[in-house]
Amino acid sequence: MKPLKDAQLGAFTFFASALPHDVCGSNGLPLTPNSIKILGRFQLLKTLTHPRLCQYVDISRGKHERLIVVAEHYESNLSDFQKHGKTTSPQKVLQLAYEVLEGLEFMNKHGMVHRALSPHNVLMDCKGNVKLAKFGLYHMTDHGADVDFPIGYPSYLAPEVIAQGSFHPSDPAHDEGPLPSGPKTDVWSLGVLLFELCTGRRLLQNIDIAKRLKFILTLGCMDDIVTVLAEEHGCLDLIKDLPENVLELLRKCLTFRPSKRPTPAELLRDLVFSDVSCFYTSFQKPVSLFSSSLRCAHLELPEDISDLCKDDGDDDYLSERAIDEVYHLWCLAGGDLEKELTNKEIIQSKPPVCTLSNFVLEDGESFGQGRDRSFLLDDTTVTLSLCQLRNRLKDVAGEAYYPLLEDEQSSLPQSNSSNELSSTVTLPLIIRERDTEYQLIRIILFDRLLKAYPYKKNLVWKEARVDIPPLVRGLAWAALLGIEGDIQAKYESIDKDTPIPTDRQIEVDIPRCHQYDELLSSPQGHVKFRRVLKAWVVSHPDLVYWQGLDSLCAPFLYLNFNNEALAYACMSAFIPKYLYNFFLKDNSHVIQEYLTVFSQMIAFHDPELSNHLNEIGFIPDLYAIPWFLTMFTHVFPLHKIFHLWDTLLLGNSSFPFCIGVAILQQLRDRLLANGFNECILLFSDLPEIDIERCVHESINLFCWTPKSTTYRQHAQPPKGSGDSSFGKTATYYSSDYQDTPKTDLSREPLALCDLKAEVSPRISAEDLIDLCELSLAGPTKRTKAGRPKIVAVDIRSVEDFNRGHISGSINIPFNTTFSPDGELLQCPATGLLQNYRGRVIVVISHAMKSAAMFATHLVKVNLLRVCVLDGGINKMKPTGLLTVPSPQI
Amino acid sequence: MKKNKGKAGSTAEKEFVFEFRAGKHNCVLKVPLQFAVQENINDLHGRLMLLHKIPCYIENALRTSLISYIEKETILDYDREAELALQRLTTGEVDVNQLTTAWTRSYVETTLEHARPEEPSWDEDFADVYHELIHSPASDTLLNLEHNYFVSISELISERDMEIKKLQERQAAEMDKVMHELGNTLSDQDVNTVASQHFDAQQVLENKWANELKQVTGIQKQEYQEWVIKLHQDLQKSNNSSKINEEIKVQPSQLSELADSGARMFEEQPQLEESFTIHLGAQLKTMHNLRLVRADVLDFCKHRRHGSSGAKLRRLQTALSLYSSTLCGLVLLVDNRVNSYSGIKRDFATVAKECTDFHFPCLEKQLEEVQQVVLYARAQRSSKQKDQPEISRNGGDDKSKNVERNPSNILPGEFYISRHSNLSEVHVVFHLCVDDNVRSGNITARDPAIMGLRNILKVCCTHDITTITVPLLLVHDMSEEMTIPWCLKRAELVFKCVKGFMMEMASWDGGISRTVQFLVPKSISEEMFYQLSNMLPQIFRVSSTLTLTSKH
């Protein structure tokens, strides 16, 4: 969005019309409230950026179908010209007309019509340039069908609009909505507007509406409408004195028959503007982040670079920020739309007890309630004062608005308040997200980093680890997922219209997916949902639509509501990374393996819980499939998903296991106390989960999990090496186990039945060497606290142990624990292991079977973090890392 | 855009023709397009490229020509529609006057700019003043004044009761005497005369008292309103609030004495109640409070006598929220006549009269108004039904017959609303009409009474009633046929339906937290009560208790 500059933020409010009583949609579901329909349609307006249009910023729903729209605003408008009763110079009129038409043409190109053109909707910025306001009202209300009031102002309505009639909702004769108006209606309104400017009078000001409209309709019989109007207003002289091109413009605009009237685009190229048009250059849309064209291709630096650094003496850095940023910060700084409008008496509400109806019929129709005046339309725009925000940010130094990205050491810019900020980082996320100053700094930082994406990809990763500001989350996620290239063209080239067999299922699922959310429950949201899902299904012929894909799509669509291509690209990048082959037609082997590894993870991290769950037979198959298949989007509301995924996207594909274990641990007490039936009931409608705690826990669990323990045969195969050449050096935690080069010491695939038989996960020899710091090359780089502590338990016989073992390992011979036929013997050694409680216990033996059995036993006695060395001691032998204890003397 | 599809001429298929050269071949691409074009042009373009394997060097040319074609045709369509509309005017198909009055009406009725100026409303001004005062230090005085008035009314009422009782005793004695003489000196006719005399005397006495009460309440109301307005003016005038405060504070000391001296014992029945906090919703959960209460429905209306703890607080609470957006409502089950002559209606009216309503018209007047509105609604309905005879639901005939018999009666599932400022815990009373059907054991979720409940909850949404009390068994009193299985079945039905409605409400109002109180009759056994309270958490998802544990 464009910077705020000298603009202000304005808000106006209106009511959507109420729905009829007890009417269901064709699918049997309740109808969508009109306010939600409007909210959905509004979103497109946010993308319309043009120097002649007031930028739309936000819409919010209040009680009882109230909507509040926030947009760019200026105090001065064309009605100021009229107030003095003076005429405007012909040159100025031409200039205004041209600028209005520029705005109209741009709107028309996007399929929109203004319909509400009037002097107070043509705003003027400080330089006297035109900015059209309320241009989106007609679009967002579906040509006025979703509101009770007519759109447009009586004097400025085009004759064909009047002729098509007003469709008052209480009028039973018209069930259908009004016919949509074309772009030419605005040209008429513009004509009236210009006429008023030229003559300095308001059109038919003192006549009541009915007569006014009738008069406009009778103009059809006149030859020269401009002259007739001038006579009617007694200003024929003024009109006669106008230069020919202005008169010609008026005539063209005030053409009665729509077919003869030019469109804004035609008029703009008309000869009447030949004097003016040379002052204007056509507007170029700035290139977006993901496109095939070069973003800085037309960047021209001045000869002397120091010209850029010249201080204009203007300290208002805030106004250089984008409008939506400023609005976001305004809200954080305690801005309250309803309060602002109530203070200006735009919102007037009566006590509800006074407006109750007397009598209600069985079908819900109520009687005896007077028309409530507070529901009438007052479309005055109220300026939102930025004082409070500026006051809040007055201590932020100017440098903070332009952080240097070169310095990789310090993330936060140095400023007076940097101490404060660094202490803010330690506060809970919820508080950080509401801290105005902190968000300002973060947003600016991310904004700059994302502008330099993909070059600054590493820094984005680094900063995302601190947190992601909600305002930029969509793009930040795209960066984390490594989206590149011309996604728009790719998305457009996918056929989303041709019917496919999956359509029916998609149609059923969408109205059930995160519908508490206003955006996703709007008809626009449904359309976009359908398109993105279809695009994914069509472009992945080897995969199929499984229920749950809709939930998976929801966060991406919500964040990139106006950018379906990006939503699609993110989803397409997300699925292979975290859900590789989950959407195969036959995905049972993938899911089975996944769930088995998950249950091993439960045993690894929480043996007590694992024992209990296994005992009552409450296996992951019964509850965890929707968790993983949708990456928790099916079980959590969107705001929780965002916080969860902020971290998930930083981890590798085994991170979801840790989230799963963390959720179980939050419900631990209840699970341990309950039997099978209660557990099923508990999970059928998952209780509230504290998501921040869950994230913390899962990070903690993740750090304690050796990478190779979550090895999956069916995980995504390693990518080609060329892929990761750009920029990012994979860190230990974000890279996948599968991505590391495969060696002899890596884990080997295991048949599913064998995998299922083992309670504890296996660890690769590689990981063992790494974690025990056995490597011959000396200690590895990563030596700090982040790594798990380990203890190796050798269960071979004492003789074997003495012949060579891993240094630091302890020997608990298997045959002292188990009798030859597998029975458990009294074991003092497990007591010994209690001393190492908390460390990762690696069981090493010759035969995998005995090692697994031993590990199972350890889990039975609730020992934490037990795993088994994959391949046993034999794997270690070739490495030459085994040591022989010096014979005792 | 479905609605436009029905119209002739608004959708039309046109053919887009595009010619291009591929090598030596001249190719022609013909695409049938539905106007008005709803789909995304870029998508259409992408699909054409893919489907017809169009070479990529044509891509941009195709796009431009497609866009300009659609633009041109759309403009033509708009023009045609517009010209048609203008033509209809010139041919006289549409009346100009009708058209312009329709426009005028929609401007006048929906926009502030053109609306008729509002006549000042005494009620609303008073509401503002009162709301302001009750949230100021003056609230205490207001309450004491109200209480004072209440005491004098209740003294009057007890006097009345006493006198009526005396009269009845006297009459009974007289009647005894007469009966004793019956057959000896007096005939049946004489007995009848005496009886009718007695009846007349009673009537006269009751009327006298009714008039007196009416007069007193009228005077009280006027005095009170004047006083409130004056107090408000005084407060506004003087900046020195401390002085005013002293002025106000004189009264309470007197009043509190009064209150103490008038402390009569009021035996409070042991109320059984249990509260639950529940979560609704699959992903985003909204929190609500439920309460199961065993009490008499009128307990929520009656003022506790002085001295009982919390009486004043409850009063203050009710007064504070009267003009706020956290109202309390109560569902009262009534028969099909809008009056207050019998049964629970009469009992309720008695309670409502115990204290002057300083804000709203008295119950009688409100009911009169409702009666008129009912007649109006019937007239509207029948005229509408004549217009659309085909839309009559099954059972509609049956109902319409009933209505024709007496249009002032209401039907099961319909309800009227009365507003009160003088009840202890309730501002709004929904008088829901039910018939004898609710006593039978086999009502379903489609029963009118249940639908009425749904509409009541809907009104709660639109008018910010955040606490609502619902009779769980849909009866106020227990009777023989209401066995334990009957109670359980009924409770389950109402619980489940209310749960459904509450989930629906979340989509109407964005999931504002509310309190629903389920009321069971007093005569229900304790055991039954606990059975019901065990049922509730099985139907609603009770939120988990918050366990505070130290981090390990």
From TrEMBL, chain A:
Domain named Rab-GAP TBC: residues: 467-652
Protein kinase domain segment(s): 1-273
Gene3D superfamilies, per database record: putative rabgap domain of human tbc1 domain family member 14 like domains, Rhodanese-like domain, Transferase(Phosphotransferase) domain 1, Ypt/Rab-GAP domain of gyp1p, domain 3
Domain Rhodanese: 786-885
Predominant place of localization: cytoplasm
Superkingdom classification of source: Eukaryota
Claim: Cytoplasm is one of the keywords in the record: yes
Molecular function, one GO term: protein kinase activity
Keywords: Cytoplasm, Cytoskeleton, Endosome
Subcellular location: Cytoplasm, Cytoskeleton, Spindle; Early endosome; Midbody
Pfam hit, one: Rhodanese
UniProt GO cellular component terms: early endosome; midbody; nucleus; spindle
Record keyword Cytoplasm present: yes
Record's function text: Component of the FERRY complex (Five-subunit Endosomal Rab5 and RNA/ribosome intermediary). The FERRY complex directly interacts with mRNAs and RAB5A, and functions as a RAB5A effector involved in the localization and the distribution of specific mRNAs most likely by mediating their endosomal transport. The complex recruits mRNAs and ribosomes to early endosomes through direct mRNA-interaction. Also involved in the modulation of mTOR signaling and expression of mTOR complex components. Involved in the control of actin-cytoskeleton organization.
Family membership noted in the UniProt record: Belongs to the protein kinase superfamily.
Protein name, UniProt field: TBC domain-containing protein kinase-like protein
Organism: Betta splendens (Siamese fighting fish)
Gene that this polypeptide is encoded by: tbck
Automatic annotation (TrEMBL), chain B:
GO annotation terms (biological process): regulation of mast cell degranulation
Family matches, as InterPro entries: Fy-3
Chain residue ranges for the region called Disordered: 384-407
Pfam families: Fy-3
Basic and acidic residues bias locations: 384-404
GO cellular component, one term: cytoplasm
Annotated protein name in UniProt: Protein C12orf4 homolog
Lineage start: Eukaryota, Metazoa, Chordata, Craniata, Vertebrata
Name of the gene encoding the protein in the UniProt record: c6h12orf4
